[in-house]
From TrEMBL:
This is MBL fold metallo-hydrolase. InterPro entries: RibonucZ/Hydroxyglut_hydro. SUPFAM superfamilies: Metallo-hydrolase/oxidoreductase. Gene3D superfamilies: Ribonuclease Z/Hydroxyacylglutathione hydrolase-like. GO terms for molecular function: hydrolase activity. Signal peptide: none annotated. The keyword Hydrolase applies. Keywords: Hydrolase. The keyword Hydrolase applies. It comes from the Bacteria.
Length: 239
């Protein structure tokens, strides 16, 4: 899979003859336009995990002709403008939904903020995009709110036990300070993932896992992109 960083939680992924675009709200390097112009017979799927402006932008409707499908969290239907998108190409999904079309297989999970997270299986491998699912443990918040955040995160994480993904995108948000890797640390111990890409960290230095981040005897490749347009190729040999 070839992955291009767009911005924030936005990524373009080439998986074989498919192009998958997640949470594109800005694309300073114009990577999506360039890929769409060269797509030919390749199918392009757009995903948006929730209605927040930094995860969904109606301007993705500009690719209505090229898009095979827009797969949007159901909250976008009522909280955002979808009029620029061709309605016949929109599929709205709720948490714990399943959708497939012969090219991709999509399973949704819940979030600890708004909307959904996505597990997408293709012939080239399986992708998990967390959206805003994270352990949002804000320093300085009340004890009650921090406990609610912890409970909500661990409740959802239990549903991901054993979930498999070749490539996982997960927030490591610098605004959380000393708590920034709490959520992802638990996630890599719960789900069975082979590579990790961090997101939702605009304006902060590239994150490096702490010394005890991985369980003993296990580690996986980690990529923390910072500049729009950065690319990385992930290969997944048979196990």
């Amino acid at each position: 899979m070839n992955v291009t960083y767009l911005l924030n939680s936005g990524f373009l992924i080439r998986a074989g003859h498919l192009l998958l675009v997640f949470d594109d709200f800005r694309d300073p390097s114009d990577a999506v336009s360039a890929a769409a112009a060269k797509a030919g017979s390749d199918k392009i799927y757009f995903f948006a995990s929730h209605w927040h402006y930094d995860h969904y932008d109606p301007s993705i409707g500009a690719f209505g002709r090229e898009a095979a499908r827009y797969i949007l969290s159901d909250d976008i239907r009522v909280r955002a403008d979808t009029s620029p998108l061709p309605p016949e190409k929109i599929t709205y999904v709720k948490t714990y939904d399943h959708w497939q079309d012969g090219q991709i297989d999509v399973v949704t999970y819940s979030s600890t903020d708004e909307g959904t997270s996505f597990q997408v299986t293709t012939e080239a491998g399986t992708i998990f995009h967390a959206g805003d699912f994270n352990w949002w443990d804000w320093t300085g918040d009340t004890h009650e709110n921090r406990q609610l955040a912890a409970n909500g995160f661990h409740k959802q994480l239990k549903r991901m036990a054993g979930m498999q993904a070749d490539l996982a995108f997960f927030p490591v948000d610098g605004r959380l300070g000393s708590s920034m890797e709490k959520g992802v640390r638990e996630f890599v111990r719960t789900a069975e993932i082979r590579s990790l890409v961090t997101m939702h960290s605009v304006g902060y230095p590239a994150w490096q896992p702490s010394m005890d981040f991985f369980p003993p005897g296990r580690s996986i490749p980690v990529w923390s992109p910072r500049s729009p347009g950065e690319e990385k190729v992930f290969s997944f040999p048979a196990e």
